[in-house]
Amino acid sequence: MKSKKACYPYVVWMVLFVVVPMLMVVFFAFTDKSGNFTFQNLLGVGQYSNVFLRSIWLGAIATVICLVLGFPLAYLIARTGRKSQNVMVMLIMLPMWMNFLLRTYAWMTLLEDNGILNQLFEAVGLPKLQMINTAGAVVLGMVYNYLPFMILPIYSILTKMDSSVIEAAQDLGADKRQVFLKVTLPMSTPGIISGVTMVFVPAVSTFIISKMLGGGANLLIGDLIDMQFLGSAYNPNLGSAISLVLMVLILICMGIMNQFDDGEESNGGLMI
Amino acid sequence: MKVLSKVYCFFIYLFLYAPIVVLIVFSFNDSTTMSRSVWSGFSFKWYGQLFSDRLIMQALGNTILIAVVAAVVSTILGTAAAIGINSLKRWPRRLVMNITNLPMVNPEIVTGVSMMLLFVIAVRAINTSLGIGSIMIAHITFCLPYVILSVKPKLSQMDQNLYEAALDLGYRPSQAFLKVVFPEIIPGIVTGMIMAFTLSIDDFIISYFTSGTTQTLPIYIYSMTRKRISPEINALSTLLFAIVLVLLLIVNLRKEKENKEILHEEEEP
Amino acid sequence: MEKKAMIELQNIEVSFDGEQILKNFNLRILDGEFVTLLGPSGCGKTTTLRIIGGFTNPDSGNVYFDGKRINDLPPYKREVNTIFQKYALFPHLNVYENVAFGMRAHKKSEKEIKKTVHEMLDLVNLHGFSHRNVNQLSGGQQQRVAIARALANSPKVLLLDEPLSALDMKLRKDMQNELKKIQQQTGITFLFVTHDQEEALSMSDVVVVMDKGEIQQIGTPQDIYNEPKNAFVADFIGESNILDGIMREDYLVEFFGHKFRCVDKGFKTNEPVDVVIRPEDIDVVKPDEAALSGIVTSVTFKGVHYEIIVDVKGFKWMIQSTDFTAEGEHIGLKIGPDDIHIMHKSEYSGTFGDYSTFSDEMEEDLQTPLSSLEEGEK
């Protein structure tokens, strides 16, 4: 089919609503309120370095936990029978269909000082725990919300894996542990990479989870940006500068991740 | 070992579903104080109140309207785009695909504020305000890549000669497309449309920055989380959850049936 | 009476991304002929077919169909139908609807469609398959549906793009016979594309040997085999020993330091030439009974004959003989005047015809990656 023209409306749309807005972020980041060129905003980002470090740190912890919890599950699902496999995958996706604000809100109900978990602890004679408004609660919220994004790409790459490769490894004398370490794990790298990306990017830039579960003390980059655009600190120029730094940061992280991947399309296992 | 993996799966699923169970249970809570963790008896009263809550119903209406528009427009634009991209030469194609990936790799919050910057200026220029229109544009924009990514693989999996065969046998290009290409890519189009619809319904972050004062359901929920969420919302999400569950079950059962039929027919001769 | 030209290509030039696919290409195809384009992958044969089908526009040159120029005629208006390499059956339609597809495009009546579909299915021996899903058919059956679908439109010319390449050996032979039969029954002009020389020789009235976008030779299968025009054709069609020689005078050629009688004339005196000797034409004799002799380096049993590689002063010859010869044996190679074929030197001289690195697997290895390359060319 020779029909290049069919994508022109799309290209115009994307330039107008993706490329131009991105350029505006760059423009705002480098100008002051009256539109003059300045580095002040970018320099101003420096004072928030602790927030950046906290976001990256919490995001990284959440990503690692997702990987540690998610990989074994994806592996187990990929190795069960076809029928129960479908059901298990569906059950992983199902929670994503419930609004994530509500799911996070439900965790408030569970974690708060007089919440369900603490009531349970009391009932069995354990001391109450301070769980809500801690960094731990923020990480828990991230893991909870983004765990499916880790499991699904790994699962899809594991099911696509040619089972004869594993048989060949066994045939050549590899035991179960060796097969896993030398064949299964390396071959699932693309899935792990897209999983890590899909968890890390939203985790680093979230602003709701921290607000709801972290109280005021655990400010993240997302909260900063929110404050500059719709919050009390209204300053779109500084907000743009922070967004720009966040974007560059994530691009660098993804660049490093892609070093581990030799395939061209790293997010091939993206959805379902 | 088998027992161990079953236990492991159980705990992960427990983790995933615990908050949802809590939400659903408390939608039936007969409380007056809107307490979120004290159980005071079973009742349907929040379900009753839900349908008389004008604000929630309006937000729900907005959400569905936006989702329908976003799904339809992004499906049409995206399908056309996928077809066009498929016939582009290598370099232009790479460029377009990179632009397509941009909203997907960019943090949502950055996409949100970038569009907000554009809309605020545009809105000032034509003297209106942010609202349902700007949300729709934003939703169409972030849905488009998902439509393209679900249609494009179907196009490239398709035997490229099918379209030529239809021309060869005497159909004009437009008819050849409808008779041959369309039936081949329709599963991808439907998947893309469903994906766009659900992404739009669920979206909070981008709507939050592009909505002005317009309420969608997620924005309404967000404004309530600062105080206490009314159990009406629990009731609403329980209903939505039930609908999704039923839909997924139907889709899965149909798939199962189709698979069986294929197996059956293969055995026949 | 001279037959009219059904298709004529004049001075066709095509290039993709700066690479020339067809160079000053000229071809006349007569009505009712079975013509085969034969050549290695990437030689431009598929492109030639696509130009006639209307899927590729030549950069320059003219395409005539039945005397009319059709360069600007879109594919759906051409009275030509194509059978695609992977059949391109419509997976969402059953056998009946696939065959009826073209007639529906031409708004034929249901009654006529029904009649023709059944005729066509009978013709390709698929009686009773109407309601089958095309995905459930075997490769051979899919092939038949593709043929029926193309013929149902009663084209004047049928284009076949390596239609048998996906079939296994046995099925392939059957389909070759069947296609030939269908062509004779219907009298439709067939333009067939293949890289399989055996297929080309056994089916065609006329074979067009192509390489690098140019026609190397046009002729009947016998001409092509017996009188190859250059080293490329000699090597591509069958097995050949190709040697450097010098034409001393008419009917006398010298190679390996010996003069041989031959049946070719019309070369300049002392002109350097390529000498082709087919392996099956060489007789194995005692060393002292022939001008050339050498040591047997390998013997392979091939069923109907033995394939013997003989080292003659460093040049490896291939001989096909029904008699067994042991490895290491010293033998004589007897060559009669009829067995020698002389060709002018060409760009291909020296690249073919020595069996020193010969192995069966290697030839096959070379075929596979090339054929996947050609898909990229489309």
Account of the 3D structure:
The complex is a heterotrimer of chains A (272), B (269) and C (378). With 272 residues, chain A is mainly α. Chain A has one domain (49-267): MetI-like fold, CATH 1.10.3720. Chain A has 13 helices and no strands. Chain B has helices at 2-27, 45-52, 54-86, 90-105, 108-126, 132-157, 161-168, 173-202, 205-210, 217-225, 231-267. In chain B, helix 6 packs across helix 8. The model of chain B has no long low-confidence stretch (mean pLDDT 87). With 378 residues, chain C is an alpha+beta fold. Chain C contains 9 helices and 20 strands. The two termini of chain C are 39 Å apart. The chains are: A mainly alpha (272), B mainly alpha (269), C alpha+beta (378). At the A-B interface, helix 1, helix 3, helix 4, helix 5 and helix 7 of A face helix 1, helix 3, helix 4, helix 5 and helix 6 of B.
How is this fold's topology laid out?
The complex is a heterotrimer of chains A (272), B (269) and C (378).
Chain A: H1 8-29, H2 40-45, H3 49-78, H4 82-93, H5 100-111, H6 116-123, H7 135-160, H8 163-171, H9 176-187, H10 189-205, H11 208-213, H12 221-230, H13 236-259
Helix pairs in contact in A: 1-13, 3-7, 3-10, 5-7, 7-10, 8-9, 10-13, 12-13
Chain B: H1 2-27, H2 45-52, H3 54-86, H4 90-105, H5 108-126, H6 132-157, H7 161-168, H8 173-202, H9 205-210, H10 217-225, H11 231-267
Helix pairs in contact in B: 1-11, 2-11, 3-6, 3-8, 3-10, 4-6, 6-8, 7-8
Chain C: E1 5-16, E2 19-30, E3 34-38, H1 45-53, E4 60-65, E5 68-69, E6 80-83, H2 95-105, H3 110-123, H4 139-151, E7 157-161, H5 169-186, E8 189-194, H6 197-203, E9 206-211, E10 214-219, H7 221-226, H8 231-236, E11 241-249, E12 252-255, E13 258-261, E14 271-277, E15 283-285, E16 292-301, E17 306-312, E18 315-321, E19 330-334, E20 340-344, H9 360-377
Short descriptors:
heterotrimer, A: 272 residues, mainly alpha, MetI-like fold, 13 helices, 71% helix, disordered C terminus, B: 269 residues, 11 helices
Largest interface: A-B, 84 and 85 residues
What is the number of beta strands of chain C?
Answer: 20
Main sheet: strands, sense, barrel of chain C = 6 strands, mixed
Average pLDDT taken over every residue of chain C: 87
Oligomer status: heterotrimer
The level of helicity of chain C is 25-40%
